[in-house]
Amino acid sequence: MQTAVAEGVAATRQKYYETLAPQSLAPLWEVLKGLVPTEPRSKFAPHVWQFAKTKPLLMAAGDLLTAEEAERRVLVLENPAMPGGSRITATMYAGLQLIMPGEIAPAHRHTASAHGARRQWRLHRRGWREDRDEAWRFHHHPQHGLA
Fold it and tell me: Buried-most residue among 9, 46, 85, 129 (CB within 10 A)?
């Protein structure tokens, strides 16, 4: 008897849910546990990119193709749990760009969100340097070093 009552309630609710869908509505009580988990559940995995292992691969790209051929000769840091996603996390992209001495990477521009408050960090011979780019302004990345 109790099973029949439960089945009747489930059928009534299902009918109700079907009336919600055409209005692009959904019952929060059916999905709340997945939206607000008791602890974080990320699809991404922690990972460390070691520069000593990465640098030779980046330098090899310089032997394989020119800056013009690649448009941007960049190795994207990809989270190992999301191959092909071109990102470290759901909201963070990072890449290592190779610009050989005398090269100038083609001009391009970014939206404000591409740099996260329009900030970009670049590794120069003397260490990391912060560059600020205005949103949607064309710029290029020159390498004035000696060959």
Answer: 85
